[in-house]
Design a protein that fits this description.
The chain contains 1 helix and 32 strands. The protein is an all-beta fold.
Length: 402
């Protein structure tokens, strides 16, 4: 079994942690008693002037607080109408789908893995299971697709209707399928499968279930994401501690149309399209300190016109020493000019920053929350994130005044 789908489980003990460890590439999660992860002086590419601040219009819990449970990994639908998130209570794992006002109207339950079952890992990636990381909505947002083991141990794609009680199995293979992303244009879903012997990208038609293989080669192809217009696919590929970012610009000619966005010795992970489709942001362990355990956010042109290596690519860093969210990647604001991220600053309990990618100026968003993680932005600019309250994880939402 060559891989298993990655993600962060919401089965957290009292307290919080970024339960992600990119084996070999050095992502280690922060904890209340932190491991020996180095923190650079508060540097960010061109940022270390006097810290500017952003006052929020509001910051509030997304759902009523509750002890004895952990909520995390919020994910907005494309329009921002829905927010899904994970909840764990003891061994019980569930995914809630809520309206933007916090009203929960649908719940997906997932069983604890059977004793001795192999967890769902990608090569070079070691993490707890996260089911919600795999949810993706149809263009009309009346249906969704996600990964699940169905309580049986083998992971496949499942599809459901919003508000429905039943889900249908979309794939069925002895090897694992996951990381689906539904095309903004129609029924095509891109996903990762181990059926080729490596992690390759496939398309599946949601209606006919016809499969199209997109990638071939000796590397793992992971975390595919459709561009906003639904014609291109960004992904990461590589082995162990060195992944690069690339784009398929024509799914009808996937092999011939792959364009490299990075090709260097640093580890680049979790590409995310800007809302206007012109740029791609991702995490990289390239940094001025030369320490592979320190992560940056880089932003490059999606058409491949920027340098793919060297000082030219390094200059594309807009923030350094960030806490990476390996579930979803960097969180773009809807104007495509700003990114919201968590700064790796334990003394300040990992504050949330907003960086302007043009001048690389980062400003502190005053949320008054602690141990922040899992930042996601809606189409209307509402920010959802996980923070710690009384040793338990809770989802908050916030809006900026500007």
């Amino acid at each position: 079994m060559f891989f298993a789908l990655t993600g962060r489980s919401s089965s957290r003990v009292a307290g919080w942690c970024l339960t992600a460890l990119i084996a070999g590439s050095g992502i280690a999660g922060a904890e209340e008693t932190p491991p020996s992860l180095p923190t650079t002086p508060a540097v960010t590419a061109g940022q270390e002037k006097k810290t500017e601040t952003v006052e929020p219009l509001f910051v509030r819990p997304f759902t009523p607080a509750g002890l004895g449970r952990n909520d995390g990994n919020p994910l907005w639908s494309r329009s921002g109408m829905f927010l899904s998130f994970e909840r764990s209570i003891g061994d019980k794992k569930e995914v809630h789908i809520a309206l933007a006002d916090g009203l929960i109207f649908q719940t997906l339950y997932h069983l604890r893995a059977a004793a001795g079952e192999t967890k769902f890992f990608f090569p070079g990636v070691v993490e707890d299971i996260s089911y919600n990381a795999g949810i993706s909505w149809s263009p009309r947002e009346d249906r969704f697709v996600f990964m699940s083991n169905g309580g049986e141990g083998n992971y496949d794609l499942y599809a459901g209707d919003m508000g429905g009680k039943e889900v249908a199995r979309l794939t069925e293979h002895k090897e694992k399928d996951g990381q689906p992303d539904w095309s903004p244009l129609g029924n095509a879903v891109v996903f990762v499968s181990g059926r080729s012997g490596k992690g390759d990208l496939y398309l599946i038609d949601r209606v006919t279930r016809a499969l199209t293989r997109l990638t071939r080669g000796g590397k793992e192809y992971l975390y595919p994401q459709w561009s906003p217009e639904g014609k291109r696919i960004a992904f990461m590929h590589g082995n162990n501690e060195n992944h690069d970012i690339a784009v398929i610009s024509d799914v009808a000619r996937p092999t011939e149309s792959i364009k490299a966005l990075t090709a260097w010795e640093h580890d680049d992970i979790r590409p995310v399209w800007s809302p206007d489709g012109k740029k791609v942001a991702f995490y990289s362990n390239a940094n001025p300190a030369g320490d592979p355990r320190i992560w940056s956010i880089l932003v490059v042109a999606a058409d491949g016109s920027d340098p793919v290596a060297g000082d030219g690519l390094a200059a594309k860093a807009v923030a350094v020493d960030v806490v990476p969210d390996v579930e979803r990647g960097p969180a773009w604001m809807p104007d495509s000019s700003r990114i919201v991220y968590v700064k790796n600053d334990r003394q300040e309990y990992h504050p949330i920053y907003v960086v302007n990618i043009a001048d690389k100026t980062g400003r502190l968003l005053r949320t008054e929350t602690k141990m922040n993680h899992d930042v996601a932005c809606a189409a209307d600019g509402t920010i959802a994130f996980r923070a710690q309250v009384d040793q338990w994880d809770q989802i908050f939402v916030a809006r900026m005044k500007e």
